[in-house]
Design brief:
single chain; alpha/beta; Rossmann fold; five-stranded parallel beta sheet; five-stranded antiparallel beta sheet; 8 helices; 17 strands; elongated
Length: 250
């Protein structure tokens, strides 16, 4: 696998090269660049399989570079020194990012994932989601990338009615009646979606409160969604749910 590094900090490029020498014997470093403009030339000359790309550089951003190099025919791993809203955008888009200073084990894991992902169409969907989320006027990601066994789906957060735990998998139920099973836990998505009015009403269920129709009282409590699904509401969750609904609609 051919790797290229684009980063405007010389010391960080050197640091990444040292890490690559230690952890990636099957990887070949084909070049480095220190700006958006020189990075574009490097990509066209070397045609890397994996790009380690800095987010912020002197003449622009890594996002600017990708918009100028379409179509993207390589895997992308972003590197950044800033824990900003962009980090959440990466997570929603299922794109790898590494916080500086990069940890050796995190780099190894990201390179492994990149080398195993052979479908460039997946990368294009992920980058499309990332660009949309980054450019959102409210700085809140609008779409999430979901990968099942066969496909990669770009889903609007507002179209998710509910999520259901299935062992180490999560079932997404969407407004268009589609169902998508993803190999991540419900807890992973609870952390990601909690700021978008998703609520863990039960150990096995995470709901989008915009689709909540009513709260039932039978059998200790339940929530009825707009898709007519009725889900258990844990007794200890009832007060927190009512409090959150009051905040949403006050």
């Amino acid at each position: 696998m051919k790797i290229a590094i684009i980063d405007d900090e010389a010391h960080h490029r050197s640091y990444l090269k040292e890490l690559l020498a230690d952890c990636a014997s099957a990887m070949q470093l084909v070049g480095e660049a220190d700006s958006v403009s020189s990075g574009i030339s490097l990509i066209r000359e070397t045609r890397p399989d994996i790009l380690l790309l800095d987010v912020e550089m002197q003449d622009g951003t890594g996002f600017d570079l990708l918009q100028k190099i379409q179509p993207v025919e390589f895997q992308v791993i972003f590197t950044t020194a800033h824990q900003s809203f962009a980090i959440q955008a990466f997570k929603f888009s299922a794109i790898d990012y590494l916080l500086k200073p990069v940890e050796n084990n995190e780099l190894v894991t990201a390179l492994q994932r990149a080398s195993e992902n052979k479908r460039l169409s997946d990368v294009q969907v992920q980058l499309t989601a990332l660009m949309g989320n980054i450019q959102s006027l409210s700085n809140e990601p609008r779409k999430i990338v979901l990968k099942d066994a066969e496909n990669i789906h770009l889903v609007a957060i507002s179209d998710i009615i509910r999520l259901e735990a299935a062992n180490n998998y999560t079932l997404f139920c969407l407004a268009d009646q589609r169902k998508i099973i993803v190999s991540k836990t419900l807890k992973d998505y609870e952390r990601l979606l909690e700021e978008h009015f998703f609520f863990r009403c039960h150990q096995s269920h995470l709901i989008n409160l915009h689709y909540l129709q009513r709260i039932g009282k039978k059998d200790g409590g339940s929530v009825i969604m707009k898709d007519n699904s009725e889900l258990p509401l844990a007794i200890r969750k009832r007060d927190a749910l009512i409090e959150l609904l009051e905040k949403m609609f006050s």
